[in-house]
Design goal:
- The chain is α/β, with parallel strands linked by helices.
- Among the domains are: about 140 residues, Rossmann fold (3-Layer(aba) Sandwich); about 150 residues, NAD(P)-binding Rossmann-like Domain (Rossmann fold).
- The protein is built from 15 helices and 12 strands.
């Protein structure tokens, strides 16, 4: 029975559903809308052959899930992982629906991916997988249908391949079919740093709300990829001290704060944070429970669970990753008085900048980076304030408040549109 309970806790779809149900009850959502919003509108599973470098054919499995299209085209990343499951993709698609609604941009939620291990694949194999996967789901893609973006183990190059494949089938260049592209192919300035920038914005808003000082604020970050590294650099710029970095292959700790620019150079040169001379080696798992003001899980799902939540010493947990805290852990953190900035708000800078890219592509007119950053900051500050208002008005925690705000917006659109029959 214990193993069943653990499996249930770690299942992202179950976690999403539990939070949805609680928020729906608080909203007094009517049964019809409850049923519609609780389930994805479309789940696509594709099996396709790919010719590998050694001449043999590998049969790949890919997913694309559309959770809701009520507020606009589906929006969500494509990830490559050997552990990818349909439940994971379902959960991520639903989180995208709520994330887009929290920041009030005109997208629904989607997610997709292919079961594969990119570390074991050549560039040519990755390109063939990407192009064949795109062709398998192409009838569901398009600037007005579904606009993918990079996610775990995918990047600007992956999106360029998706865009080119789609464009070749359409017999015209369609830059707005994906976001997160290279600048030269219609990408947006500021997009690469946007998720990390959004993390900084909401962290500063949380410090202001809790009347905590910015200068000297002690921060530990789990994950030093695009989100974690950019958040670290941007928060250090405003006077915060990054005292800990936890990565899959080892961690770093310096009570006086690290030189993030030097750490970024070390990471670029060596492909790891391990061996950096500006901090002491530390156990990554222990760093999660080390005393700090803000803990930023910015890597993967399910890193704060019922097993370690009771030991979390941070005043604020800002979820740079999707689903880093399980529903069981939420209850424990709530009892401890931890101020959680939920993922659907905390890491929404990425999808907000993706929206900007989509708009620019459709206009054929591109903005200066200062304009992108200014509009991003404005949207996230306003969204943070809206979530806090919902929290105070309904007497719930920040996560449920964010869900309620998002669900209210999506449900309102569905009520106005009605049900086509």
């Amino acid at each position: 029975m214990a193993s069943v309970a653990i499996e249930q806790e770690m299942n992202p779809w179950e976690a999403q559903a539990a939070r949805f149900d609680f928020a729906a009850k608080k909203l007094n959502l009517d049964d019809d809308l409850w049923k519609v919003l609780r389930s994805p509108s479309r789940e696509i599973i594709v099996h396709f052959p790919v010719l590998m470098d050694d001449g043999h054919v590998e049969l790949m499995t890919g997913f694309r899930v559309h959770h809701s299209l009520a507020r606009g085209p589906a929006k969500g990343g494509i990830r490559y992982s050997p552990d990818l499951t349909l439940d994971e993709v379902r959960a991520l698609a639903s989180w995208m629906t709520w994330k887009c609604a929290v920041v009030d941009i005109p997208f629904g939620g989607a997610k997709g991916g292919v079961i594969c291990d990119p570390k074991k694949l050549s560039r040519g194999e990755l390109e063939r997988i990407t192009r064949r996967y795109t062709s398998e789901i192409i009838e569901f893609l398009g600037p007005e249908k579904d606009v993918p973006a990079p996610d775990v183990n995918t990047n600007e190059q992956t999106m360029a391949w998706v865009m080119d494949t789609y464009s070749m089938h359409m017999r015209q260049t369609v830059t707005s079919v994906v976001t997160g592209k290279p600048i030269e192919l219609g990408g947006s300035r500021g997009r690469r740093q946007a998720t990390g920038r959004g993390v900084r914005v909401v962290c500063l808003e949380a410090l202001r709300h809790l009347k905590m000082p910015v200068e000297g604020c002690r921060i530990i970050i789990q994950g030093f990829g695009n989100v974690g590294s950019n958040a670290a650099e941007l928060l250090a710029e405003v006077g915060c001290k990054i005292i800990g970095i936890a990565e899959y292959d080892g961690g770093l700790y310096n009570a006086n704060g690290m030189d993030i620019h030097a750490l970024n150079r070390h990471h670029k040169d060596h492909g790891t944070i391990v061996g950096f001379h500006g901090a002491e080696a530390a156990d990554s798992a222990q760093l999660l429970t080390t005393a700090c003001d803000i803990l930023i899980p910015a890597a993967t799902e399910n890193v704060i669970t019922s097993h370690n939540a009771g030991k979390i010493s941070a005043r604020i947990v800002c979820e740079g990753a999707n689903g880093p805290t399980t529903a069981f852990a939420d209850d424990i953190l709530g009892e401890k008085g931890v101020f959680i900035i939920p993922d659907i708000l905390a890491n929404a800078g990425g999808v907000t900048a993706s929206y900007f890219e989509w708009v620019q592509d459709r206009q054929g007119y591109f903005w200066k980076e200062e304009v992108v950053n200014e509009r991003l900051d404005e949207i996230l500050v306003n969204s943070f304030e809206h979530v806090i208002r919902y929290r105070l008005a309904h007497g719930v925690n920040n996560r449920i408040a964010a869900y309620m705000l998002a669900m209210d917006r999506v449900a309102g659109v569905i009520r106005q549109r009605g049900f086509y029959a």
